[in-house]
Each structure stands twice: as structure tokens, then as C-alpha cells.
Amino acid sequence: MQVRTQSISRAEGAFLDIDLEISQEMLPIAFEGYVFKDHLTLKGKLVNEGNRLYRLSATLHVNFEGACARCLEPVRTGLDIDIREIFAPAGHEYLERLSKQAEETHVPDESIYEYQGHIIDFEQAVRDNIVLALPPRIVCRSQCKGLCPTCGQNLNHKQCDCSVDNPDEKVKSPFDRLKELL
Ligand SMILES: [Zn+2]
Ligand SMILES: [Zn+2]
């Protein structure tokens, strides 16, 4: 996930076209129960902003699979994530100013990533953006009926015989009954 910046390092406004395929193995963990499918693509531009700063403006496309929050069936879906990040060389005053700002306000309004020499690595920025963009839950379809809380039947497939009048009564375990008796 690295690019070399030599060719654009001397001219402010110069840019590199970014068109990278990122294998999902480069992302070390499954995020929040999601599993990535195929490779990820990162497409956009890396622009020389002057003062040794570079700005990445790109779209990250990810395909992933997770369990439906209602029926637990696997759901496969895709996401386009807009990425706007600044890259600064280690020790750059821009980094210090922003980390001071973050300390004071406790909310960094812009993420800055360090680079070394003439090589910029997008890995951390890509990972952070994925973590922020993944939805906390997905459903297989908006009308998903979910699972019966009593018998666990997937109600999208067939209706079960459990009463829907008083589901609370049905989910009580023998231990709850015991507690009531004590
Ligand atoms: Zn579902
Ligand atoms: Zn049931």
C-alpha cells in the first residue's frame, strides 16, 4: 500500500494517480465481525500540497460479509469510502500543531499521517477509514423478519408455531421460574 513521491516532490500541485488493489490479507483482523471479500481498491489522487505535505483524495471500495443483525444469515455488501487525509514527514511542525490542537480540544478535526523519506504508506489511513465507515449493523433486507425469540426459527423461511401473544412468557428459562418460587 505504498507509493513513491519522488516524481512529484518538487512541484507544488503535482499529483500522482492512485489506483491500488489491496489484498484483504493486508488488513490483519476481521473488523467487528465483518469479513472482507475480494480485494479492496483505492482510486484517486495524491497531491503535493507544498511544504512537504501531501493530500490523499481517494475512494476506497470494499466488499464485505457479515451476519444480518436480525436473522444472522450472512449478508454480502459493498461500500465506497471517501478518504481525505494529509501526510506529513516525521517531525513536521504541522504534525506538532495538530497534536497540540487535539490535546486542547480532545477532538482532532483532521487526521495526519506520518511518512518517511519519499515513501508514503496508506495502510494506517485505510484501516482507520474502514473502522469509521463500517456500519454498526447490517440487515439482509429491510423486511427481514428475524428469528423467533422462542424457538430460533428463521421467520423469513417459515412461520413457527410459537405464540406471539406473550413472547416474554416463552423465553423464561427454568431458572427464572425457580427464582420466582424462591
Ligand atoms: Zn435477515
Ligand atoms: Zn418460534
Give a short synopsis of this structure:
The chain is α+β, with helices and mostly antiparallel strands and 182 residues long. It has helices at 93-105, 123-133, 167-171, 174-181, and strands at 2-4, 15-23, 35-50, 53-67, 74-89, 112-115, 119-121.
Write up what this structure looks like:
The protein is of the alpha+beta class. The protein contains four helices and seven strands; from the N terminus they run βββββαββααα. It has helices spanning 93-105, 123-133, 167-171, 174-181; strands at residues 2-4, 15-23, 35-50, 53-67, 74-89, 112-115, 119-121. Strands 2-3-4-5-6 form a five-stranded mixed β-sheet. Strands 1-7 form a two-stranded antiparallel ribbon. The chain is elongated and about 75 Å long.
- Which consecutive residue ranges, at least 5 long each, have pLDDT under 50? none
Q: What's the Cα radius of gyration? A: 24 Å
Distance between the termini: 62 Å
What share of residues is helical?
10-25%
Mean pLDDT: 85
SS elements, strand count: 7
- Report the principal-axis shape: elongated
Oligomer: single chain
Heterogens: zinc ion
Number of domains as seen in the coordinates = 2
Order of helical and strand elements: EEEEEHEEHHH
- Which structural class best describes the helix and strand composition? alpha+beta
Describe the protein's topology.
Elements lengths: L1 E3 L10 E9 L11 E16 L2 E15 L6 E16 L3 H13 L6 E4 L3 E3 L1 H11 L33 H5 L2 H8 L1
The structure holds zinc ion (2 copies).
Features:
five-stranded mixed β-sheet; 4 helices; 182 residues; binds zinc ion; 2 domains; alpha+beta
